[in-house]
Amino acid sequence: MRLFLPFLCLIFLASFSNPKEIRKYEIFGTAQGTEYAITYFATDSLVKKSDIDNLLNEIDLSMSLYKSNSLISKFNAGKNPIKADKFISDVLKRSFEINADTKGAFDITVAPLVQAWGFGPKEEKQEPSETQIKNILACVGIKNIRLKNGVLSKTKECIKIDLNGIAQGYSVDLIANLLEKSGVKTYIAELGGEIRVSGPKPDGDNIKIGIEGPDEKGIPVIRHIVALNSGAITTSGNYRKFHQSGSKTISHLINPKTGYPLNNEMISVTVYANDAITADGYDNSLMAMHINDALKFVENRKNLEAYFVYKNKDGKITDTLTTGFRKLIYIENQSKNQTDEKK
What we know:
- By secondary structure, this protein is of the alpha+beta class.
- It has helices spanning 4-17, 49-63, 71-77, 86-101, 111-116, 130-137, 167-181, 276-287, 291-299, 323-326, 332-342, and strands at residues 23-31, 34-42, 82-83, 145-148, 151-154, 186-191, 194-198, 207-214, 220-228, 230-237, 242-245, 248-251, 266-273, 304-311, 317-321.
- Strands 1-2-6-7-10-13-14-15 form an eight-stranded antiparallel β-sheet.
């Protein structure tokens, strides 16, 4: 017994003198017509690529317009109510809230308009006429759908929903939930440019994210870097995804009230929020506003910040940001000084 107890103590001490090293794990793949990249820090490989792919495939079977057997495709193709799953229920509830908050600027029933302007699943060879737009608008309006007791219904057969303006952010949140439930505390989850993070990194540094936007020639560049340890960053813009019709540029962002593509001074909007579904839901809506209105809108809402790239009155590309977003901007010298002060 005297020999045995010291031996146990040696094992116990040894287990604490050699802790497992925290490593960086990276997962890359494709989903939802784009790419994803996940980085997390842990002592073991807690989440695998197959875990992420299985989750995203499950989401696609619920909300993808490009899968004919998805739940949303079945709803759009028919006239009868459907039993909504958790994915659609979660996204619809948030969509109703953001629609009300933006006074209709965000509307998931724009699917027929998106298709008519050539940005839907089917190919369109010509622009819709004024008469066609007027007819389609009769099939647009979130008031025409209802979610009650888990059942989704619509008032007209022509009503179709498009969740692309919010579902990708929601997908990022689900990836974040998967990581956290698996024991991951520090991560960067990105899908199609929508990002959610949890930090700091093992070395104590903040997580840094590059904010993209066009330069004066319209070429995408990193305009700023933000440093944060929680929350989500999403961006909506019209400088990457568009059609060219002669000298006219047609944005993929459609105004649900007029039926026509957005055509204002906005070029891109980057939104920071606590979760990605919120940031993703608001970025398109802010694109539909004029800059002063958008700034006021965000400043009046708690836990919402934004960075705007737009054209001023003389056509020059410029930018501005909300007070809270300014605090997120990473300035190397300032960060170094703050670190020195702590020391």
